[in-house]
Predict the 3D structure of the following.
Amino acid sequence: MSISRKAEARLLNRTELELMEPTHYPSVCRLDLNELRSQRHFIRECRDKARDRARQQRREMYGKAEPCAAAEALDTPAPSARARSSPRP
């Protein structure tokens, strides 16, 4: 699935954008097969971590799970809420 750079910039912070840069068009052509595989693995790990954290926060908000971190789910917005609350140009 393809996401535009503009959409990525809204959803990711600066560090995450720097990590994603090698996966975009001119840079991705210069990567060899092993580097591509490691990038794919890294990106999927990040996606899974964010998905699991969002799921845990939803469970905490509904009262189905105890908070597993020092901060409760209400203290930190989910990634989708962070994107909605960011100012639009």
